[in-house]
Amino acid sequence: MNSKEIDIVNVILIIVSLALAINLPFQLFLFSYAFLGPLHYATEINWLKEKNYFLKETKWISLFILCSFLVALPMFLRLNLPGQINKMSWAITTAEVLSKFSDEILLMAIVTTIGLIYFKKTTHLLLFLIPALVATYWILNYFPDFALFTAIFVPTLIHVYLFTLLFMIYGTLNSKSKPGIIAIILVIAAPFIIMMSKVNPAEYLPLKESVVNSYNSTSFGFLNYGVAKFLLPAQHANAGMLSAIGIKIQIFVAFAYTYHYLNWFSKTSIIGWNKNLSKSKLIAITSIWILSIILYLYNYKVGFIALLFLSLVHVFLEFPLNITSIKGILAKVQAK
Questions:
Q1: Is the peptide bond before 206 cis (omega within 30 degrees of 0)?
Q2: pTM exceeds 0.85
Q3: Rounded to whole angstroms, how far apart are CA atoms 159 and 110?
């Protein structure tokens, strides 16, 4: 398919994703996260590697992998693991210490990425990074709400919704496709459509016990609570999982994650992430994907724990691409 045809497909995918999210907000999210997520992580990481992670020097990748590990570890230790490791004093202490710095790690990784994209010389990079990192640490310590915002939203909704939207804008600026413009408008309009829609919680009940247990086994309840707290501060106390507000938030989360994955797979011919898939890589990626699905089907919590690091590392490794896309958009706008 050419770019215009792919944009038409994406318009359809946006509408389908939103319709499914409105009707099955919890079920769709659980399905997309378990079945589409792992395949997306594995294929994108392989593609980013082939593109040198959009960095001039790939030696910095080890830093992003380390950051991913440090952010994932406290979440891993706090979950109810076999053997009750989360009740061990060393695990609790480690989780508490690292979790206090997860927002700093996330934002400093982004700041470092900005420096790597904009500065070629090491001297210029250091002159940027030293004051930038100090300022970042100061801001996060004196503005705790911003720190919480960073920790909750950067690896989740900012990644799956905002960055996906930016990629679409960047691509459409180049292609000038009318269906591409329609797709962008629909993605922007989606949260407003959800917000203005009437939701009757009774229509979503009863949820199957397996759905409730699977959802509660993840940490995404904190994401929904965070959305309610930041966007609806006066009402967030009443934004329970099955309240009208809670369901609207979950509809948006399900839509954002589902379309994020579908957008990636729909643009295979444009992005070309399948071109450098050797037989051995294809076998490895397929094996990871099948194993992930088996783990999720066996126990959603086990699957979530097993894929936690892979999920986060693909977020961190994408930061250079995110900043490169933003830089490209700004350059296009300035050129006009």
A1: yes
A2: yes
A3: 12
